[in-house]
Amino acid sequence: MNRKIHQLCMLLAATITTLWWPRTCLIITAVDADPQINLLNRGCSQYNVTNASEFYTNLNATFSDLRTQLMENSSHFATAQQVRGSNPVYAMVQCRNYLSAADCVACFTAAVSQIRNCSAANGGRVIYDGCFLRYESAGFYDQTTLPGNVGLCGNITASQVTSFTAAAGSLLVDLQLATPKINGFFAATRNEVVSSGGSGNVTVYAVAQCAETVSKIGCQDCLNVAYNNLQSCLPDTDGRAVDAGCFLRYSSTAFFSDNQTMNIAPFLKGGGNSRKKGIIIGVAVGGGGLLLIVGFLLYFKLSRKPMADHRGDILGATELQGPVNYKYKDLKSATKNFSEENKLGEGGFGDVYKGTLNNGKIVAVKKLAILQSDRAKANFLNEVTLISNVHHRNLIRLLGCCSKGPELLLIYEYMANSSLDRFIFGPRKGSLNWKQRTDIIIGTARGLAYLHEEFHVCIIHRDIKTSNILLDDSFQPRIADFGLARLLPDDKTHLSTRFAGTLGYTAPEYAIHGQLSEKADTYSYGVVVLEIISGQRSSEVKSDAMGEFLLEKAWKLYENGLHVELVDATLDPNDYKPEDVKKIIEIALMCTQSSPALRPTMSEIVVLLKGTSYLENRSLTRPVFIDSDKRVQGDTSTSTGSSTSNATASTSQLSGR
Ligand SMILES: *[C@@H]1O[C@H](CO)[C@@H](O)[C@H](O)[C@H]1NC(C)=O
Ligand SMILES: *[C@@H]1O[C@H](CO)[C@@H](O)[C@H](O)[C@H]1NC(C)=O
Ligand SMILES: *[C@@H]1O[C@H](CO)[C@@H](O)[C@H](O)[C@H]1NC(C)=O
Ligand SMILES: *[C@@H]1O[C@H](CO)[C@@H](O)[C@H](O)[C@H]1NC(C)=O
Ligand SMILES: *[C@@H]1O[C@H](CO)[C@@H](O)[C@H](O)[C@H]1NC(C)=O
Ligand SMILES: *[C@@H]1O[C@H](CO)[C@@H](O)[C@H](O)[C@H]1NC(C)=O
Ligand SMILES: *[C@@H]1O[C@H](CO)[C@@H](O)[C@H](O)[C@H]1NC(C)=O
Ligand SMILES: *[C@@H]1O[C@H](CO)[C@@H](O)[C@H](O)[C@H]1NC(C)=O
Asked: Is-contact 146 314, C-beta < 8 A?
């Protein structure tokens, strides 16, 4: 994984090199000049710029300040900030000290052009071999080690495994120890690997560097983490460790000229434990037998695996990639000019069409029915960036968008099996067995738990219902339409919540008072679970039943211990165990309690669903039953436009219960 990324980065870097290279420099320093624009890590964060023109003005001023500092004083480190207004920019650049002043500026120039890809993100970073550039909307100069720190290993194993590991290992230990004590927090050094088999001597080169604005202790901490990350690269011939406040790199190929090496011995005196540990590792490996080597190799293999997983996020802000932009005319032809025949449905936010792209890929294209003001467009791009970064197997992937045509369009992955409502109430009613239904119940809970608790921004769906839960080829659930409610204009959100939610699924505190929390989704989820189990719509009164809405009916059956009577008659009774039915119905009723505080969080629900305990000790409180619901529902079926007044009218009746 790392290697692939690495190779990709090399490729990217090679492309960039050809782009930026200043011709005048070519003639003068063609041989030595190397700004080392090999891309190691990049990312953008925080897409919440509120005033783009102000932001870009600040960003440009900051970059030009950094450039002046690098050029006029030939320095290798600079910070600059523009804090006026509501979109402040703080920035930092650092070149490896072995670069010439010209190479440093060249590396910075490349980094600026790369980081501008973040466009209106108010955070971004680029880490090259030669330099590092970062900006954020708040100060970060003292940051040292952050989640996402990572070791990037080479792809060639050193020929003399033991001696190379020993030599490189002790070199890195020395650097880790000495660098925080050196003025400017930079050290470059090398170590000879003495060949035992006559295959030629090898030299290991290494550098360590901390941001000049961190403390000595901070530098130590950061390099300590970096050292641990690099250990798992050995015995590869190359390794780099990147983090917010420091950089550590070694290679068997010289990447700085010999006259840059420093004598770090004076800084190692009184070095204490780390130094001893280094020597011990060195000696043990150098003198050890085959067993030790095997052990080491095993250790490297094992310890390397998890590294691939914590990529990105190195500078604390979660990495967001921009959405893919599709061309309007491509989407128009993919959907046969948004023809009726390609229409998949009408969602709360606009119509959805099936589209076949030029490459044969089938997608779902949603035409957003929101105002196209500049403000709405800016919001749109921010939200779309956010949504397109949501990756979870129970959530529909947003593939990209199109904001350059007459309508705002969203492009989603296409689900051939359509939505859950068709399988529960619709044309294919009764075709899902018990196992499939419980899988859908658990998967939906997982998807919501991710949106609420695991994604770096809490996304409340606000409109969970069976028609928003799509099914993939193996009937696993994929929640659709999340994040879109945030696109509604600010001044409309409170009122429009009654539109955004669908009566019958909407939590009472949200429907009536507009009080929104993730527990509103918990409520809707509980209603959906009851629908899945019973095959009855929450808004429908069954003539054969007790003449009540689903929620009220479920509650009464629960109170009388008759849970099993709620189960869809199309299900085979041999398919499910009564105690499982009981558990799931009780979980659903926990979700629909009238007090949001009493409802469990979605991650708790996942645990409850998967657990074997039967919740006997949990006493449930009664849900709110909306008497007027019958009337409201009756009205909405004839005219959706009038539902606002009906919902408002029902308020007084509801609060009386
Ligand atoms: C190692 O990576 C370099 C570039 O990163 C590439 O040119 C080379 O082909 C790779 N070697 C192997 C054995 O994968
Ligand atoms: C954006 O900021 C600039 C000042 O940098 C100000 O003149 C302008 O009015 C602001 N625009 C908005 C929409 O706030
Ligand atoms: C900032 O700099 C970029 C690139 O030089 C330029 O395209 C853009 O217009 C500038 N923006 C402002 C607000 O100065
Ligand atoms: C260059 O260094 C001097 C002395 O340290 C300092 O006063 C000056 O502000 C620096 N110039 C720039 C452009 O940072
Ligand atoms: C953007 O969001 C981040 C984190 O949510 C916050 O720290 C920052 O101040 C925000 N920036 C602006 C310009 O609103
Ligand atoms: C980012 O910027 C660089 C340099 O300006 C450019 O070559 C590259 O294609 C852009 N896009 C990405 C995804 O890096
Ligand atoms: C390797 O280094 C050792 C000790 O520095 C030296 O004696 C030997 O001649 C070197 N071998 C080669 C092939 O350079
Ligand atoms: C270091 O060596 C390089 C060539 O390898 C040379 O261009 C440079 O001037 C040298 N620097 C010093 C300070 O001697």
From this structure: yes
Domains and CATH numbers, the chain: 34-136 (3.30.430.20), 150-312 (3.30.430.20), 323-413 (3.30.200.20), 421-651 (1.10.510.10)
The answer, as to whether pTM is greater than 0.90, is no
Lowest mean pLDDT among 118-122, 248-252, 306-310, 576-580: 306-310
Q: Which residues contact 490 (CB under 8 A, 6 or more apart)?
A: none
What is the CA(39)–ligand 1 centre distance, in A? 15
Give the model's pLDDT for residue 320: 60
Whether 577 has a binding-site annotation, put simply, is: no
Taking the C-alpha atoms of residue 613 and residue 604, their distance in angstroms, rounded to an integer, is: 13
**Ligand 8 neighbourhood includes 257 CB (under 6 angstroms):** yes
Mean pLDDT along residues 565-589:
92
CA gap 306, 569 in Å, rounded: 48
- Ligand with smallest separation from the Cα of 11: 1
The three-point CA angle 147-443-545 to 5° equals 150
Ligand 2 centroid to residue 52 C-alpha, Å: 8
What span, in angstroms and rounded, lies between the C-alpha atoms of 529 and 609?
A: 12
Cis peptide bond upstream of 235, omega within 30: yes
Residue whose Cα lies nearest atom 12 of ligand 6: it is 117
